[in-house]
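Session log. Operator J.P. requested a structure for one protein chain; no other inputs attached. Running the standard single-chain path with token output.
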Amino acid sequence: MAGVTQPTDQSHFILPDLGEGVHEAELIKWRVSAGDTIKEHETLAEMETDKALVEVPSPWTGVISELCGEEGEIINVGSILVKYDTGGAGAGGGEEPAAESEAPPTEEKTDGDAGTVVGTMSGELTVSSRFARHTDADNGSETNGNGKSLATPAVRRIARELGVEINRVPGTGRGGRVTASDVHGFAGGGASTGQGAVAMPEAGGFAPQAVAIPTELPPIDDSDVAEIIPFRGVRRKIAQALDQSVKTAVHFTVVDEADVTAIDAKRREYAAVLGQKLSLLPFLMTAVCRALKKHPDLNAIVDDGNAQILRKDSVNLGCAVDTEHGLMVPVIHGANGLSVVQLGNAVAQLARGCKERSIERERLQGGTFTISNVGSYGGMFATPIINYPEVAILAAGRAKERVLAEDGRMFVGKVLPLSLSCDHRVVDGAEGARFLNTVVKLMEDPEALIS
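Structure written below.
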């Protein structure tokens, strides 16, 4: 604020961007305490985003004067995470960061996106040298002397992406600072609640609008509760994604069965030659990739904002992985160019990365079709929910031995249940059935599948 002398011995470290599209993170564990002397790049805290566990490093050397958050708390990008006493004697001999001017960075000066964490999402992170540094003088007003809203570069970037004039957004953060939640709330057409509620941007084209949560919710019986589990991290992301999918895509499901007796024998031959375990899943993936080339309507995504269907050339195959943190869908990019063995190895590698929370965010995005292997846990048929904005998802049940009949003779074979859900706005019912029929035929003919 103009006319206020900026202190030189206090510095605020805001929570930076932890990855593209990440606006908040859960504080899992503090690695420092108030009064600790910390060096540059030492870990301050462990944070959990919707997909990964990350360690947030200190941008400079100094003495921790205050920790701004409790373990288990959701913290928005751009909120103050730690306060430093950088001018004290215990600064560890580190070089004191240079003070900035009183006015926060203008929109034209924040293209470098100060306050950004760069690196992989596996826990090894480095910090940009241009962290946004805020002083107590910043917290005295909603705007600076030029009528500009107080907001971090990360929040200003969010506003630009949503087409929001940030100077019109009422701030609910400390000292009237505009937070990411404020921007999302304003973009949704209403005042920010300050409680982290994210409003869905209005969709264009033929997408139906999201149904608002009723103001009067039914009464909740909170007696005899064994455990309270907050919607956080991966679980909340799953809930949001599924909610958006069922409110946007028009689901229909087709089911069928494939006689996989012959392909199962071929799988056993491959496993014996390779000396490693090989499931039916990579064979099914190969069948799906070939079927998508014949039925390209299903290898697509929907751009509801521009009322467009984007039919894809390459098959980027998502594979749902169940972890103790929740469902994750890593993507095998260019799956149509891989062999059965390569697909099997890719699935094992991605599943391991998901369970260890070390997988990169880039490998969790860009899918064009998804397979969910519900049979690994004993299920047969399912009604899978589409991984929006994709237009189709295939659920594979557990293959079981059955008594089958063919040309008047009976025999014991193995049958694989398959359930296909499609977005009826893009895929007609007949085309969905034809696609599934192609997959079944390929799974029943090993020579045609592997040739």
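Operator note: The CA atoms of residues 63 and 90 lie 6 Å apart.
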